[in-house]
Amino acid sequence: QVQLVESGGGLVQAGGSLRLSCAASGRMFSSFIMGWFRQAPGKERDFVAAITRSGGSTDYADSVKGRFTISRDNAKNTVYLQMNSLKPEDTGVYYCGADRTRRTLTTRGYAYDYWGQGTQVTVSS
Questions:
Q1: DSSP codes joined into one string, the chain
Q2: Cα-based distances in Å from 68 to 18, 58, 65
Q3: What is the C-alpha to C-alpha distance for residues 79 and 51, in angstroms, rounded to an integer?
Q4: Most buried by CB count within 10 Å: which residue of 6, 60, 77, 109?
Q5: How many C-beta atoms lie closer than 10 Å to residue 66's C-beta?
Q6: Beta bridge partners of residue 34, listed in sequence order
Q7: What is the pLDDT along the chain (125 residues), one digit of tens a residue?
Q8: Count of C-beta atoms within a 10 Å radius of residue 86
């Protein structure tokens, strides 16, 4: 069992930056693949980024490539999402997820076993 708590969301103007954090409880953080997803109002939860257990490999949705960076600090049980050049279409609730079983990164939300409560990101035009 692991509990995830996101933070760092807020209101920002287009072109601005935010850094999201997701802190995990427990001592098994390094055994989880971690991912970020987002959900806009009235839409499904979409994949944003994922990172392997060691942090050596990452994957991104095409819509955020070159603008967002996922990273993790296993000593601090935390995964981050650095978001630059934000656009209004980046608005939504951002969730972090933990995948305990798979060997490779996945963009599928159902693959993640644990989720945080989400943090709101609003980008104004």
A1: ---EEEE--EEEETT--EEEEEEE-SS-GGGSEEEEEEE-TTS-EEEEEEE-SSS--EEE-TTTTTTEEEEEETTTTEEEEEE-S--GGG-EEEEEEEESS-SS----GGG--EE---EEEEEE-
A2: 10, 11, 6
A3: 9
A4: 6
A5: 9
A6: 51, 98
A7: 899 999 999 999 999 999 999 999 977 999 999 999 999 999 999 999 999 999 999 999 999 999 999 999 999 999 999 999 999 999 999 999 999 998 899 999 999 999 999 999 999 99
A8: 22
Q: Are 84 and 67 in contact (CB under 8 A)?
A: yes
Both tokens assigned to 25: 């409880």
Tokens 């693949």 -> residue: 33
One-letter amino acid at 18 equals: L
Q: What is the Cα 77 distance to its own chain's centre? A: 14
Compute φ and ψ for 116, nearest 5 degrees: -85, -175
